[in-house]
Structures are given as structure tokens and as C-alpha cells.
Design a protein that fits this description.
By secondary structure, the chain is of the alpha/beta class. The protein has a single domain, classed as Glucose Oxidase, domain 1. The chain contains three helices and four strands; from the N terminus they run βαββαβα. The longest helix has 11 residues.
Length: 119
């Protein structure tokens, strides 16, 4: 798990090869307000670019409000198999990562869809 403190460029971060296979924590709370488009993918590999494994967000993904948006972020993430979780204090998590280093992490739910945040 790593973090990113940018206030824009989420699609670029999620498709940047340096984040491939990682869980990215975003400290900025408003993810998705720009939406997604084909021009903002950082690298192109068939059939799709490498991407981060998951993203951790403070607030739920918002609807796009940018004229360049071709697709909302939620279906874009789903189509690429990028798991997301919201409702996390991402600034506290970032401080922990800075203090202790990058931890190994997983985001998982039980088969019935419940999520246990105590672990």
C-alpha cells in the first residue's frame, strides 16, 4: 500500500506503471469529479494498461463534472477490475504509512458482501 497526495490526475495515477499491482491511498477527498477519458491513460498495453490493484478513498466517488469526461470513474474502475473502498481516514492512513513504511495490504469482503473494518 502506498499513497498519493495529488489533487488532480487520478486516472493518470491509477494507470501509471509505477503503481501497478499496488493499493493507492488518495489523501484528497474528492475523487471522480473529473471523470475519465482515453486521453488520460498513462500507458497503453493490450488489452489494457497495467493498473493499480485498488484505491482507498475518504469519500465516495463523485459524479463527473468536467467537459472532457467520457465515462464516470466508478464504471471505469469496475471495467478494469480496480477495487475501491471509501469511508477511510486517508490522511491518518498516509501518516501511518509515512511513519511505519509501506505495509502489505489487502481489501477483501466476506462472501455475503459484509466488510469487517476492525481488522
Amino acid at each position: 500500500m502506498c499513497f498519493n497526495t495529488a489533487i488532480t490526475g487520478y486516472q493518470e495515477i491509477l494507470t501509471d506503471p509505477s503503481y501497478a499491482g499496488q493499493i493507492v491511498t488518495f489523501t484528497f477527498p474528492h475523487i471522480g469529479n473529473v471523470g475519465t477519458n482515453d486521453e488520460d491513460i498513462e500507458t497503453v498495453h493490450a488489452p489494457r494498461p497495467p493498473a493499480c490493484a485498488a484505491c482507498v478513498l475518504q469519500a465516495d466517488i463523485t459524479d463527473p463534472s468536467n467537459y472532457r469526461a467520457a465515462e464516470a470513474s466508478r464504471p471505469w474502475l469496475k471495467a478494469r477490475g480496480i477495487v475501491g473502498i471509501a469511508g477511510v481516514d486517508t490522511r491518518a492512513l498516509t501518516a501511518l504509512i509515512r511513519e511505519k513504511g509501506m505495509p502489505n495490504a489487502v481489501i477483501a469482503t466476506m462472501p455475503n458482501g459484509e466488510f469487517d473494518s476492525r481488522r
